Amino acid sequence: MEPILIPSQHNRLNIPTEPNEDEFNYKSDEFKGQLNIDSFEILSNIGSGSYGEVNLVKEKNSQEVYAMKKIFYVDVNDSELVKKRAFRERNAMVTCNNKNNKRAPKLFCSFVDSIEGVFYYVMEYIPGGDFNTFCYDRLVEGKKFTDEEIKFYIAELVCCLESFHSYGLLHRDVKPENILINKDGHLILGDFGSSKQAVNTTSSSGFSFSGSPSSAGSGSLGSRSFDNTPPNFSSFLRNPNNSYTSYIGTPQYMAVEVVQGVNYSKLCDYWSLGAILFELVTGTALFVESPDTTEQKIRENIGNWRGLLNTAIQKSQPNISKVAESLIRELISPERKRIDATGIKKHPFFEGIDWEGMLNLTVEPPFKPTIDKN
Ligand SMILES: Nc1ncnc2c1ncn2[C@@H]1O[C@H](COP(=O)(O)OP(=O)(O)OP(=O)(O)O)[C@@H](O)[C@H]1O
Q: Domain Protein kinase, which positions (predicted)?
């Protein structure tokens, strides 16, 4: 299901009509090629989403292989919104690069072709496919995830989210399709088009933060604003006065506060994690009754989450352990009560887990993808 955005909410953002190439163009230290589409040979199509497509490409000089995402911004429904998403994505990836984040695809370069109206991102190719396909295949094979497997994958996602949030970024579209599997079987968080960066609006009293409209439009923002990580960042994200209200995400995984259009914080990503946990444990989606369930109905279901969660948990007995149920209820919960990474790590569901190893990607994944060498 595609992410939903309400354009009027995004028009607050002041983005130049023509994308500023200086702000969008980016080259990592390792990348020696040209910022030009002609420097790449397209090998195959890897995937496509609502805003563009991702191809496997080879840089002609170095013969290095990359995943290239292209996003078209002319002749599309809401060009300004698409541009805004493109800058957000670019900025979030640059931030992750600067922080040497191992849980995000590395961005080698980004550039814009203003004649064709396309944004390009040249990323590290993550070859194990997406987590949605992986889960779906398991379901079709009738192989349920074991508790140990679920523990591993949810812990990996906690590490992804914790690092992302630590830079002041909210992902806002956490769903299995946006999670990639690397060659070793570790999970990597992708698709930052819906992300939001808090802005350092230094005040006389030191750091203060707001969801200022300029956050998505500034090309260098990702690398600049969090060089001085605020001491009190997590409490900012919890503070309703400083949080966000844009309606964004993918219905089935959207937190109730996002659906209701009230203030939300990084905790919206942990609701999505709870919805994924429910799916891994039960093999069914929490707020979707059938493939015919409309987006409107899903939103209504999320509004009535308490009753639906109780019924869904009852229906899933005895397949759902008490400890898994407890973690689901800590995540699919009102925002003020929901736990974040700190709380999640202490939850008995994760008893015995090596969090240090998880963080460093040294815990062996339960599954290693077979990589097609061609
Ligand atoms: N770095 C990468 N390496 C390998 N595959 C990738 C990479 N980035 C994206 N993909 C594949 O391409 C698909 C589409 O990418 P992505 O989700 O970023 O596009 P999108 O248009 O923003 O999608 P959405 O509809 O979720 O907004 C992903 O589901 C994934 O399968």
A: 40-350
